[in-house]
Amino acid sequence: MNAPTTRKGPQALDIKSATIYTVRLVLHSANTSELLEALQQRMEGAGAFFQGEPVVIDCSAIMDPIEWEPLLQALRHYQLHPIGVTGSTEQEQAAAQHGLTAVELSLAKAAIEIPEPEQTPPSPVTPAPLILHQNLRSGQRFVAPEGDLIVIGMVGHGAEIIATGNISVYGPLRGKAIAGANGNTNAWISTTEFEPELIAIAGVYSVIEDLHTNPHHKKPVLIQLEGDSLKFEPLG
């Protein structure tokens, strides 16, 4: 049995650049009850879209003190992971006492604005869908945060695709597909080769445990939401 290689001194580690993508939580109020109520409404409408994501809290528009502990507990309840804050020096110093680090806004990839005075229903159709010409393999995740997603290629086992609108896969769908992630019940999923691990529309999930007994296995199929259940229709 060979002994493990030992690298001493500076060779024991490398320093490389990395880009961290996070969700940006934009606060428009310092009132705790308003924030928690708005967060609940947003998370109920988003389904699993933001679950597991790191979060940077943007309180740059807030001058009043914020009760950090109940807000952080609520975020963790919804499986969000607060890691940083951006705002005034006073706000950042107060947040630091609760384990949040001051960060730059350029790290944020998506925004959840809280609270929003008027809620409008999501549009079922986006005029310019996001088109992905590649295969996605295990561990890869692709998100279309503002509309439809078209994948021309394979979504492999362990890969995940998410869209606020519809999802079309022109190839094998073997991983996870989540459409209508912002609560759009009119969204649908289609694929030319049905082999997924999990599909979801507007928070309604179906875990495919035994594909070989599924009547749509490896066939073109359209999935839509009908009431509180998913409806499968063969294509072509």
UniProtKB/TrEMBL annotation:
All copies of the Septum formation inhibitor MinC N-terminal domain together span: 13-82
Which SUPFAM superfamilies does this entry report, sorted A to Z? Cell-division inhibitor MinC, C-terminal domain
Asked if the Swiss-Prot or TrEMBL record annotates the protein with the keyword Cell division, the reply is yes
Q: Which InterPro entries does this one have?
A: CAP/MinC_C, MinC, MinC_C_sf, MinC_N, Septum_form_inhib_MinC_C
Output the Gene3D superfamilies linked to this UniProt entry.
2.160.20.70, 3.30.70.260
Q: What does this protein do?
A: Cell division inhibitor that blocks the formation of polar Z ring septums. Rapidly oscillates between the poles of the cell to destabilize FtsZ filaments that have formed before they mature into polar Z rings. Prevents FtsZ polymerization.
Protein name in the entry: Probable septum site-determining protein MinC
Source species = Paenalcaligenes hermetiae
The gene is minC
